[in-house]
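Hi there,

I know you've been waiting on this one. I reran it after we fixed the sequence typo, so this is the corrected version. Both the input and the resulting structure follow.
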Amino acid sequence: MIYKNQTILVTASAKRLGKHIVTDLVKSGWNIALHYNQSKIIAEETAHSLIKIGGKVTLHQADLSKSDQLTNLINNVKKLNSQWIGLINNAGLFKYDDGINFDFENLNDHMSVNFIAPAILTQALARFTIEKQKQDKKLQGMVINILDAKIFGLNPDYYSYTLSKQALYGLTKMSALSYASSIRVNGIAPGITLPAPGQDKNLFQRSHKQNLLKSSATVEEILNAIQFLIISKSVTGHVTLLDGGAHLAPPRRDVGL
């Protein structure tokens, strides 16, 4: 196992896509720093399932919109994982608004979770890696940001969310430049992948097919893209778009509405 005893922090990894990601990473030999916000019981269940298949897991609770909790998350990950070299910024806030009705609170909440927290976590991993490189010059960290294909085929819905994901796209490029001596930074921008909580199954299936290829992203494709970005040491500042071609002919309104 290439990544034996090396740790990757995956935000919001107790359930949904995050759970799929950490399960696949454990199979590749990674140790997991499993972050969650409010889903303590689900996080513990996920950790138990990872341990059953041979994973090593540390649990980390934090509200990523709170500065003090974000700082504590970073300190705890470093304290419990001396070989922390990976970060997947998977956590995301997704609430509806538009350009007329958005307000300061909703915009600030989206920016805090979807952009500011990834920026601070990326900086923390870069600093941690720079210190480790004093003993091992070959050491290199790795960050993957989970974006959204929507930012490459815009419509006016989910205004604050979209702005925050555009900011995360900018962070992917800027941090790849800024931290090139210590970490690689890439992104994945999936289209519709999993049903939203409470979403009608038929509506999800229709939405999943509203693109040129009649099929949007799948969990398996995202996992494959993550593995590619992990092992491809020459790739940085790159964003993999998985949307069935929807960005080439974007709908006027969000397909989930």
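Quick highlight: The first strand starts at residue 7 and ends at 10.

Best,
R. S.
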